[in-house]
Amino acid sequence: MLEQNTARPAIECRNVWKIFGNRSVEALHAVKTRGLSKEQVHEEYDCVVGVADASFQAHEGEIFCIMGLSGSGKSTLVRHINRLIEPTSGDILIENEDINGLNAKDLRKIRAEKIGMVFQHTALLPHLTVRENVALGLELRNVDEQRRLKTADQKLALVQLTGWENRMPSELSGGMQQRVGLARAMAADPAILLMDEPFSALDPLIRRQLQDQFLALSRSMNKTTIFITHDLDEAIRIGNRIAIMKDGEIVQIGTPEQIITEPANDYVAEFVKDISRLKLVSAHTIMQPIEDYLKHNKLDITLCPTAMHDADLDALINLAIDHEEPIVVLDQSNPIGVITKRQLLRGVQGRNADE
Amino acid sequence: MSDYDIKVNEIFNQTETDDIKQFLGSSQDYYLRSFKQITQGQKFSLNLSAALFGPLWAASRNVWSLFWLFLATDIIGLIAIFRSVWGQDLYPAASLSLGLFIFIICRLIGSFIANNLYYTLYTKWRITPSMLNGSNASRILKGCVLIVAIYPLTIYQFSASSVLKFFESFPTNRKINSTTADAIDAFVDWMTISFEDVFDSITWAIRGMLDFLELLFIGTPWPVISLLLILLAWKAAGWRVVGFTALALAYLGAFGFWDKAMSTMALVGASVFICLIIGAPLGVLAAKKPRFNRILNPILDLMQTMPSFVYLIPAIAFFSVGKPPAVLATVVFAMPPMIRLTTLGIQQVSPSVIEAMLAFGASPRQILFKAELPLATPSIMAGINQSIMMSLSMVVVAALIGAGGLGYDVLFSLQHLEAGKGLLSGLAIVLCAMILDRIIQGRHKRK
After folding, report:
1. How large is the ipTM?
2. B91: three-class secondary structure by DSSP
3. Which residue of A has its CA nearest to B356?
4. Shortest CB distance from A108 goes to which of B355, B363, B371?
């Protein structure tokens, strides 16, 4: 993950604003010069602010989650990436190409070849079979029939739907339909996947299954994915990084651990309050530097259990159960920190060890 | 605080009482008590001012339903009274007492329900306070104006012996109608002469299509046509419809309607084909362009409500008599449902499907042909079905200008008062319609 952060951005949004309404340009000007609030914009201009000054970069191969409640503008934002919605102002770059500068033909080409999309309500064509649905993107690009159907079968095998090719979408369960949607998005082998709450309409068990399946798939495929969800648990399970949106603004961008341990404001803090920290918080976040510890205590390092700096709380608890001594944290082979039982338990609670 | 105030407070709390007072304006004490009685379940109470002032009370209190009721009964009663006064009736005394009876009884009934209606108005006002506007005085003025405008003239017209000429019928100038009609005639004449070539070529094209269809239907031996129809029925709708089709065809053959039925089918086929190739694109356009839809809608309303006979006149003017003008008149009559149902079908395609198509790089053309039209097919098929039914209902009318076929038989029996023959050929038309309907509907339902 760390090395991916230095990779070049596959998708970049720069100061994207989207204001809905007939007087959106005036309204945007008013917001920028007079600093109107969203309510004032609605009253004065009868316009609705969908996305407000959103900027982010998603790196190649990364799963970038955008998390927010309904109405927070996350679906609006993701539709800017394939220009289903055009911004009132701001730039969207796909591999350093400004997508808003494209003409209609080039835009269709980039949508067909570079960006796949999965929708919350599947949006499969009800009059086509599963196989034809998956082959749809290729059909639109006039790929010959034999090749596109063969590709469709391969993609269906990837999502474990072999044997269902000739069924109609209405014959499939919700989870299966969503897998067809995923296969359809991947049919053209796009570099970018946009997933708009793909699992939100499914029941929890199936959702979990699909999340696992999707994670396994995406590890093997290395596609840049923008994943929209209103469920922080899902965002944490799936995302390499998470952007949290509220009222059209991006409130915080960070890795799951950063979001959990350093929430940017009360809103995010409220969200992460109930999230289990066991698998997210690592040793170096809760440890005390070894020099500080040695100032006040004596320690025979040879007797202590050791853990790597990126071990999670779950692993640390396992160590602590079997040993009386504090845990020594290693960076490669050098001891860099110490975790006492107090620090460990406070870490699980998400509170400071000095409290 | 008086005695009844305490009782009122048991029913309505203070804010509610304030609300009612705001609603009432004047005579608060009386109506507060009356509302209280209504909420306690008392059905009727006599409102004296309503009985005395009738419509004026209703106007001032905004109870307009009662206003019109008072107005109507007042006028009926007063007419009877005035007729006896002016000596219009054989038995003046009887008519006078009848008039008085109606007037008084209706006023009484009205004032017995007045408070209940007023209370209903209050409950509505509590939900949407904006429904009442204007001052009390302005409402009374409105009521007075209406009464002055309606009462004297109406009563005078019905009861006086010599009626004012001006009010007897709507003042009209016969010339307006005739000059306008003449102008339209002149326009039609001009069109007929200047665009003769255009009309001739349309006639020629339709005649060609009709000739081909008639050749196909009548020229093909009857067993082949029957077999094909039965096969179609079996494929589309199953055994029951096959049985029905076979019986219907047997009827057409046995009673000697075969050739005429086939000729009618050719006419209907040609009309529906033209409806489809013109109506479906118009329907798609209307679905895509709301502004075009707004212009098209009243035209379609006009086409559907205009009596179908009216279409025959321009058809004859432009295309003379015979089958081609009959086809065109039928097309005008049968096209609106085709257009409407196509528009509906396209509009009903889920926006998320369109969005998905866009996201996969579809062009507008691809969206239309690969998503919208296939998904609108059931609706378009319903449109075709409607067009067929309307064409068949036009068959008799079109026979007036020489369309021939089964319609001609019905027309002939009408002119010669042959009820039996008319009924039989009418039944033949019904059977043609049912065969087509069952086959198309069957396809529909199976999908």
Report:
1. 0.83
2. coil
3. A123
4. B363
Beta-carbon-side half-sphere exposure of residue A147 (alpha carbons within 13 Å): 8
Let me know: does B353 contact A104? Beta carbons within 8 Å: no
Nearest to B445 by CA among B236, B158, B230: B236
The CATH number of domain A283-349 is 3.40.50.720: no
Please state, in angstroms and rounded to a whole number, the distance separating the CA atoms of residues B268 and B248: 18
Minimal-distance CA residue of chain B relative to A80: B359
3-state secondary structure of A101: helix
Helix (H) or strand (E) holding A229: strand A224-229
Provide the 8-state DSSP code for B431.
H
Measure the CA–CA gap between A115 and A94, rounded to whole angstroms: 10
Residue B74: which H helix or E strand, with range?
helix B64-85
Write the CA distances from B230 to B236, B255, B279, B382, B438, integer angstroms: 10, 19, 29, 21, 12
Long-range contacts from A178-182, C-beta under 8 angstroms, 24+ separation: A178/A118, A178/A122, A178/A202, A178/A210, A179/A210, A179/A213, A180/A122, A180/A124, A180/A130, A180/A133, A180/A134, A180/A156, A181/A118, A181/A119, A181/A122, A181/A123, A181/A124, A182/A118, A182/A214, A182/A217
**H or E segment at A177?**
helix A174-186
How far is the C-alpha of B215 from the C-alpha of B229, rounded, in Å? 17
User: Closest-CA residue in chain A for B363?
Assistant: A108
Closest CA to A168 of A118, A132, A220, A215: A132
Distance from CA of A13 to the nearest CA of B (A): 18
Residue whose C-alpha is closest to residue A214's, from A58, A4, A2, A65: A65
The beta-carbon neighbor of B360 closest among A104, A127, A136 is A136
Write the residue in A84, A116, A127 that is nearest to B358 by C-beta: A84
Whether the Cβ atoms of residue A192 and residue A160 lie closer than 8 Å to each other: no
Q: Measured in whole angstroms, how far is the alpha carbon of residue B312 from the centre of its chain?
A: 22
In this complex, is the C-beta atom of B355 within 8 Å of any C-beta atom belonging to chain A?
A: yes
Buried b (16+ CB within 10 A) or exposed e, A48-82: bbbbbbbebbbbbbbbbbbbbeeebbbbbbbbbbb
Number of helices (H), then strands (E), belonging to chain B: the values are 22, 0
Give me the residue label for tokens 């919605």. A85
Q: What are the φ and ψ backbone dihedral angles of B45, each rounded to 5 degrees?
A: -145, 145
Q: Decide if A123 and B374 are in contact by the 8 Å CB cutoff.
A: no
One digit per residue, the tens of pLDDT, for chain B of length 447 reads 455 555 555 667 778 888 888 888 778 888 888 888 888 887 778 888 888 888 988 888 888 899 999 999 999 998 888 888 877 677 888 888 888 999 999 999 999 989 888 888 888 888 887 777 667 788 888 889 999 988 888 888 777 766 667 777 787 888 888 899 899 889 988 988 888 888 889 989 999 998 999 888 888 898 999 999 999 898 888 888 899 999 999 999 999 999 999 999 889 989 999 999 999 999 999 999 999 999 999 999 998 888 888 888 888 888 888 888 889 889 999 999 999 999 999 999 999 999 999 999 999 999 999 999 999 999 999 999 999 999 988 888 888 888 888 889 999 998 999 999 999 999 999 999 888 888 887 765 554
CATH topology of domain B197-446: MetI-like fold (1.10.3720)
Residue A245 host element (H or E): strand A241-246
Determine whether the interchain pair A117/B374 forms a contact, defined as Cβ–Cβ distance below 8 Å. no
Q: Please, how many CA atoms are within 13 Å of residue B86, restricted to the half-sphere of its CB?
A: 16
Distance between CA atoms of residues B144 and B60, nearest Å: 10
Residues of B in contact with A139 (CB under 8 A): 370
> Which residue's entry shows tokens 């009216």?
B310
Say if residues A24 and A90 touch (Cβ distance below 8 Å): no
- Can you tell me the distance from the alpha carbon of B404 to that of B259, in angstroms, rounded to the nearest whole number? 11
| B281 close to A (CB below 8 A) | no
